[in-house]
Amino acid sequence: MRFAKFVDYLARLEATTKRLEMTAIVAELFKDANEDDIAPIVYITQERLGPAYEPIDFGIGEALAAEALMKATGKGKDEIKKLYKLRGDYGDVAKELLPAEAKKLTVAQVFERLMQIATTSGEGTVATKTDLLADLLKKLSGAEARYVLRIPLGRLRLGIGDPTVMEGLSWSKAGDKSLRPQIERAYNVCSDLGQVARIFKAEGVDALAKIQVKVGNPVRMALAERAKSSEDIVTRLGKCAIEHKFDGFRCQIHKQGDTVRIFSRNLEETTTMFTDIVEGIRKQIQAKTAILEGEALSYDPETGEFHPFQVTMQRKRKYDLENMTVKFPLRLVAFDLLYVDGKDFTGEGYSKRHDKLASIIAPGERVQISQHLVTQDAKEIEKFFMEAITGGLEGIMAKRLDSKYQAGARNFNWIKLKRSYQGHLSDTIDGVVVGFLRGRGQRAKFGIGALLVAVYDQKQDKFGTIAKIGTGFSDEEWVQMR
Ligand code: ATP
Questions:
Q1: What's the CATH class of domain 3-153?
Q2: pLDDT tens digits for 142-152?
Q3: How far apart are CA 422 and CA 382, in angstroms?
């Protein structure tokens, strides 16, 4: 597909905020694309050059963009600056300065060049990136350059999330959303919508079944529903396994020989944060290849006791990591197994996965299995729960004994019971900052006084505001936030 044609779609997407309309445009775009273009198209519409778990830092700021524009257009710095002040967006400046007629580059070619720019490193990087970007801009029309320039600057902002892409793919082939479950399953397993789109386009929906759990490809994590009480758990699950709910960092660990990679709950790579756990995996996991999950927790090497979350959290600091590793070492409490030595375990029941997991962990400091109690007695669960809480834990997790590992799903296969769900809010909720209020009084000097927060209403596909949040931030943080 010519990039010029892709740009027509981007312009249509930019002009709407209606979800259904967006899905229809995306579906038309996917139908129009060929097998070589579709993965780049998926990535670019989501402002990326690959799956989210492999973020690419373009290393292109506004100064570099302005410099490249100067080189591509032959205009002076002042003129570019003046136009930017007027338009507020380098994409719009590019549109104004570059020729109107459409050029010949294809989506795949533009993508390749963007990739080249992003991956340039070493000595003289800035100059090389500027030259490459200028060269690319010269080969584009104003309308094309408008979008290309917005990608590295992170200003495309089309609002196309994973659900819209998945729905669009289904509509592009079936004319309805009926293929979404197969598409979503494949995505949950490989976390790469570009790859899913390519296979779907080239080989059809049935070929998606061949996307399987693979070491190195993070799997979208299984999540838990909540229960009100121990009785509630027994009513839903009957005989089940009860584990402690540890409050630390969820880690999905991929081991391939001595190479160990760790991904967070949001599938960001966190390997460098957990050098002690990496070491422990190498030493204690008795398998060549494996994918396992667990919670990383800070503990006291003297007593073996786990520290509270606030202490574990300190590992997030970017500096002084080495010292932190010594002062507050981490231990992984492993609770699930997805893959080991060529065998996919996601289709096996919880009990089988847990037993196998226990069998591949050698004794040692860094990794331990999450102990469980198998019962159908609500009183026994209550006792386990009370002990957990008295011991300073967050609560318990109940797991359905025969449940598969359901990638990306939140359901009652896993149920969390925390200190108190009765009546008041003791759990965290996911909020989205949708605005802010200008500060008054003390906060006037920051220009910001509170954040306006919303929650997503899936049924209506809308964000409903629920609260203003004005506490918990330091002066520096307010300034930063503004
Ligand atoms: P929460 O704030 O309760 O952690 P969440 O939305 O981040 O909510 P949930 O699905 O609600 O995630 O709870 C599951 C989380 O609990 C997992 O992501 C994991 O980090 C943590 N956890 C702690 N102990 C366990 C355990 N034994 N088994 C599974 N998950 C556990």
A1: mainly alpha
A2: 999 999 999 99
A3: 15
Tell me which DSSP letter residue 145 carries.
Answer: H
Residue with CA at minimum distance from ligand 1 atom 8 = 428
265 Cβ inside 6 Å of ligand 1: yes
What is the CATH number that goes with domain 223-422? 3.30.470.30
What Rg value do the Cα atoms of the chain yield, rounded? 25
Please give the Cα distance from 381 to 431 (Å, whole number).
31
pLDDT-based confidence at residue 319 (cuts at 50, 70, 90): confident
User: For residues 216 and 439, what is the distance between their CA atoms, to the nearest angstrom?
Assistant: 46
Give pTM, 2 decimals. Answer: 0.85
State whether the beta carbon of 312 lies less than 6 angstroms from ligand 1.
Answer: no
Told to judge if 201 belongs to the known catalytic residues of this protein, a careful annotator would answer no
Look up residue 120 and give its amino acid.
Answer: T
In the chain, domain spans: 3-153, 223-422, 432-481
- pLDDT tens digits, 78-100: 999 999 999 889 999 999 999 99
Q: How far is the CA of 245 from the centre of ligand 1 (A)?
A: 7
Side chain identity, residue 164 = T
* H-helix segments, 256-349: 275-284, 309-313, 321-327
Triad 371, 263, 276: Cα angle to 5°: 65
pLDDT for residue 13: 96
339: β partners: 291, 344
Which is catalytic among the residues 95, 129, 139, 245?
245
